[in-house]
Amino acid sequence: MSMHIPFEAHYAALPDRFHARMAPTPVAAPALIAVNHRLARELGLDPEVLESAEGVAMLAGNAVAEGSSPLAQAYAGHQFGGFNPQLGDGRAILLGELRHADGHLRDIQLKGSGPTPFSRRGDGRAALGPVLREYILSEAMHALGVPTTRALAAVTTGERVLREQPMPGAVFTRVASSHLRVGTFQFFAARGDLEAVEQLVAFARARHDPGAETALDLLKGVIARQARLIAQWMGLGFIHGVMNTDNMTISGETIDYGPCAFMEAYHPETVYSSIDQFGRYAYGKQPEIAVWNLAQLATAMLPLIDPDKDRAIDVATEAVQGFADLYQAAWAEVFRAKLGLISDKPGDAALAHDLLGHMAGAGVDFTLAFRGLAEGVDVVRALYPEPERFDGWAEGWRARLAEDAGPAETLSARLKAANPAYIPRNHRVEEAIQAGLTGDFAPFHALNTVLQQPFADQPEHAAYQAPARPEEAVRETFCGT
Ligand code: AMP
Ligand code: MG
Questions:
Q1: Domain range spanning residue 131?
Q2: How many domains does the chain have?
Q3: Residue 231's closest CA among 104, 102, 349?
């Protein structure tokens, strides 16, 4: 008897060329690592049932729930600027969609669930390390208020997967507003399958932009969502690390926590990913890469925007160029809040840029510096080897704060609400992974607990605020593949 889950099958109702219908491949010995109780309940699922033997069997791909129409999704994508017409879910299976308590649909997907027709040379599996990483990072991003795919569960498989060396295998259950990517549109556009692009536009409008009447409206919706998303990343020092077009969503959620990292010492050229040799996806490059990706989406939709090609190019270009203003506005809003400013004044963005400018020169920890503003300028000052430039800036900041009518006594609370004390620091993530590899998930659970309240002081967990000591520092991150 397999369990019944009231999945809806919207993506599965699309024509055959959108997906390959298939079930996950069973694993040797599934064992539970974690179920996200709160998210499970929001999806109408009973966390205790998910934690039962039956539930774990489903989360490992050993049993397919009644009501599920499992499938692998087709997509393409530009990877580091080079187009690959055929990517697709090579190690993931969409089980179906569920209605979240907020009224919107969510995809429920297993990642690491075995080979599919899209696996190319891959084994279809996921190693435990990257699964723990995605769980920690995506839930941390959610708690930080950033649109993101979520972690519903993680299980070990009792099997080994061969990476640089044999590693324990795991399956991750990902929840997303949808898994539509820029690359999904590119898949069909590259084949000249206009009918499919049209169906995809209709699907995406229904799911993400009920107000959008045309393909152009949808494009503009994606552009607006991505502008806000990237501004939020910038405000947290988040570096995605692999902003390929198959890793950019239509929903505006962050997806694919491979080699991503939260920057410690601030510098716009920071790169962590071992595969990003030329810094294509460096922290400071993210907005311009977003524009590049959105131009690919616009290109894929072009024939639907206007039958007259020149006119289509004109309006699509204008829409993509609109990113700049949307992004600047979102960035200014994020950094105004980070500086505790209430009103919106012309010099505010420059004030933020000025601070970042001398932070970059001084190698100051991004998260500590902004959080420090809530504790007093002396706390921030102490982070600088030569604080003179900061002192000058702090004077200007105080003068600017005095121009706001807002109550000065709430300044510290405002700053704390905009500047997290806790981010998933790379060495803490690494510590949780290393323990997990020995079968000890206590550090993983402890880290998740702290990261659920990133803006709270949590004095008992103050150690998690500290940047890595030199010997702990993680200078490079690796893809999950
Ligand atoms: P990612 O780097 O996770 O964004 O994946 C890029 C592409 O490679 C996608 O088509 C994945 O499905 C595929 N892929 C990644 N890892 C594997 C794997 N272990 N087995 C099969 N396909 C994979
Ligand atoms: Mg991907």
A1: 11-178
A2: 2
A3: 349
Residue nearest to atom 11 of ligand 1 (CA): 90
Alpha-carbon gap, residue 293 to 200, rounded angstroms: 18
Tell me whether residue 221 is in a domain: no
- Kindly report, residue by residue over 359-370, the tens digit of the pLDDT: 998 999 999 999
Rounded CA-CA distance 273/52 in Å is 37
Rg (CA), the chain: 23
The CA distance from 1 to 279, in Å, is: 51
112: in domain: yes
Q: Are 126 and 136 in contact (CB under 8 A)?
A: no
DSSP label at 239?
A: E
Residue with tokens 């998260």: 367
Virtual CA dihedral for 123, 124, 127, 130, nearest 10 degrees?
130
- How crowded is residue 341: how many other Cβ atoms within 10 Å of its Cβ? 24
Q: Is 246 a catalytic residue?
A: yes
pLDDT digits (tens, 9 = 90+) for 99-133: 999 999 999 999 999 999 999 999 999 999 999 99
Catalytic residue among 89, 107, 246, 365: 246
72/117 Cα distance (integer angstroms): 8
CA angle 142, 7, 49 (to 5 degrees): 75
Helical (H) or strand (E) element with 160: strand 150-162
Does ligand 1 lie within 6 Å of residue 256's CB atom?
Answer: yes
Closest CA to 111 of 213, 255, 231: 255
Tokens of 335: 């950094």
Q: Indicate whether 285 belongs to any domain.
A: no
